[in-house]
Amino acid sequence: MRIVITYNDSQLFLAAHKPISLETLGEYDGDYLVLTSDSKKLADYQADPIWGKLQAVQNGRVYIWGEESSWFQDPIAVLSQAELLADWLVAEAKK
Question: 51 in a domain, yes or no?
Fold first, then answer.
């Protein structure tokens, strides 16, 4: 037996993501921050006048992964993402 599930990518994206404006970014400040970017590094965020105000950015507790690493939401990809983040958080806690 084979089961195929299809979905509209834009609907999946909207269901999994909440758009926020840069003006309200400070309301989401936390100890750690996970970002998706293929071009920006931590230093870029630290130099930015808005991002640089966040505690996680100031303390270097930002996990930046490429778009390819975070796009997929199938069970195998999600497990891999969780393992990567868990390893990073454990390493951060040991610092």
Answer: yes
Question: Six-digit token pair at 67?
Answer: 């778009």
> What pTM does this model have?
0.71
| 26-78 tens-digit pLDDT | 888 888 888 888 899 999 999 999 999 999 999 999 999 887 777 677 888 88
CATH of the domain at 28: 3.40.50.1980
Are 53 and 23 a contacting pair, CB within 8 Å?
no
Report the candidate in 56, 57, 35 with the shortest Cα–Cα distance to residue 48: 57
Which structural domain, as residue segments, surrounds residue 38?
A: 22-94
Domains of the chain: total: 1
